[in-house]
Design goal:
The chain has 196 residues and is mainly alpha-helical. It is built from 8 helices and no strands. The chain has one domain: Heme oxygenase-like (Heme Oxygenase, Chain A), CATH 1.20.910. InterPro entries: Haem_Oase-like_multi-hlx (IPR016084).
């Protein structure tokens, strides 16, 4: 071995970014959700979207509120948007039926991380959706408060990634399964969304 080789430190072992593993294994169902959400090219399409996202988030946020959160996260959780959705529904003169759904049963941190991948990740998409809503003259004061809350700050996504990549022991299969279940539940929220 050459002296120069002995003096060069070994490269640090790269920490895998687990979000890409989850993203790859949920891409198909995520695409189905994007198709179901569609675009906001009319007020009626926005109203349909609002009903669907509310149906999903009301159920999911109840699940998150009763889940066990690791003490290591120091009380961190993503912003809950159910109160903003309630205001948005009221502003648009909408109601939704509250049907029982197949909420994921969160019994491990890996499952919680899979669910959070979907919930916190939706804030990234909200940055595009808030622009689409604004094109219809819908803003935080008349039906898009939840989008304003979700798109306001990237910090929750960064905090989530820190939790995701640091947690041990981590079960990728459980995280992916829970994320897929959450995407399915979101899709179910958009089934039969009409002015109720």
């Amino acid at each position: 071995m050459q002296i120069a080789e002995m003096l060069v430190p070994a490269p640090a072992k790269a920490i895998p970014d687990r979000r890409f593993e989850i993203k790859e294994r949920t891409a198909d169902i995520h695409e189905l959700l994007d198709q179901r959400v569609g675009s906001f090219d009319s007020l009626s399409n926005y109203r349909r979207y609002l009903q669907g996202i509310a149906r999903f988030r009301f159920d999911i946020e109840r699940t998150l509120q009763i889940a066990h959160w690791p003490a290591e996260w120091n009380g961190w959780h993503p912003p809950f948007i159910a109160p903003a959705l309630e205001r948005d529904l009221s502003a648009m003169g909408l109601e939704i039926s509250r049907k029982p759904s197949r909420r994921p049963d969160i019994t491990s941190v890996s499952q919680l991380l899979g669910l959070l991948y979907v919930v916190v990740g939706s804030s990234l998409g909200a940055r595009l959706l808030v622009v689409r809503a604004a094109a219809l003259d819908i803003h935080k004061g008349n039906g898009a408060m939840h989008l304003a809350v979700m798109s306001n700050d990237i910090a929750p996504w960064r905090q989530f990634l820190s939790c995701l990549n640091a947690w041990e022991p981590f079960d990728l299969e459980l995280a992916v399964s829970t994320a897929r279940s959450a995407f399915h539940q979101a899709i179910d929220g958009f089934v039969d969304t009409v002015d109720e």
